[in-house]
Amino acid sequence: MHFSSLRQKSEFREIIPYSKGEILTNSTHPSSYYVTWFHVVFSAASTISIKIDGVKDFTYEEMKLATNNFNVSTQVGQGGYGKVYKGILADGTVVAIKRAQEGSLQGEKEFLTEIELLSRVHHRNLVSLIGYCDDEGEQMLVYEFMSNHTLRDQLSGKSKEPLSFAMRLKIALGSAKGILYLHTEADPPIFHRDIKASNILLDSKLTAKVADFGLSRLAPVPDMEGAVAAHVSTVVRGTPGYLDPEYFLTHKLTDKSDVYSIGVVFLELLTGMQPISHGKNIVREVTVAYSSGMIFSVIDERMGSYPSDCVEKFLSLALKCCQEETDARPSMAEVVRQLESIWLMMPQSDTKTTESSDKDPEIAVTSQPSSSIVKNPYVSSDVSGSELVSGVVPTITPR
């Protein structure tokens, strides 16, 4: 199903959703497509209508009203995709509206990728897509609004109160659980490819929600014998400072690429430093301090008091995630297991500001190790208009 050509003249008139596993072959085209959740209608005007259960299709006028005509006072963020606005829908729902930059090819791909991905994944620690707008030449995505903005905002001192170690550990565990879901429970599994502090959003209770799936890729599909490739070969995309060095050199994207990135986020949580600042790299700086027995010299003083043994174990885990060699890094299942273990070590007096485990799934320790999750064989789709192209493609020689 080639979304890259949706805005161009097409022979197709309608693609209707089939039950999972069925193949739809269009008689006017030799290719077959695996269709599960989209109902895409083409017209002579080359516009599209993507109908997804539970996801609302907004008009441009509705988006204008929600943001007071995109007033600068409603802008809450900006990135490579475009600007983010706080909006209020007609029914009173407060939302975040991500508006693509005009004429951005990157925005076009990320728009389609996010709609495709977020229509199929649902987890407490992943941001929820409320709707989208593809009207009057504009492309926007509408999400639940996160009142505490991004983790990067919190760590940069924009919040009223600094995060305690217990809150930072809770955010780390929530983020890790969201990524673990993508790696082991999404069908097919997903590599996020752009995990960073500014892509981890925080709600009113500081529940972490992984966001921004525009660069995500589907994991490789099994071959005829059931074997699954360990990586997806692709051009390097992501954010400097968070990029897996092995992926950068080989163009081989794996689940361990996300592990490296979340390891950098863990180091940010512990130190308050940015990944790259004034020529200094956070992984290198913390590694030197750790090797010299000076780890507490780099810990963020704004955390206040903290249990040193828990901090040491958390920092050790973060550095394991940031190993240069892929095989030396733990899986996300192991990361979650170790974070849960650290949480159980925390004194009750340090965790009383967070909700109890029986009330808050965020910090509830699983009764069974996360590594027990078994990945089932799956069927994947290729959507060339988005970044969710699965399967192994020829390796691209690094430039």
Automatic annotation (TrEMBL):
Disordered: region residues: 349-372
Key word Aminoacyl-tRNA synthetase present: no
Top EC class for this record: transferase
GO cellular component: membrane
Organism of this sequence: Ilex paraguariensis
Name this protein carries in UniProt: non-specific serine/threonine protein kinase
Membrane topology category: Single-pass type I membrane protein
Gene3D superfamilies registered for this protein in UniProt: Phosphorylase Kinase, domain 1, Transferase(Phosphotransferase) domain 1
Family to which the UniProt record says this protein belongs: Belongs to the protein kinase superfamily.
Annotated residues for binding of ATP: K98
Chain segments annotated as transmembrane: none
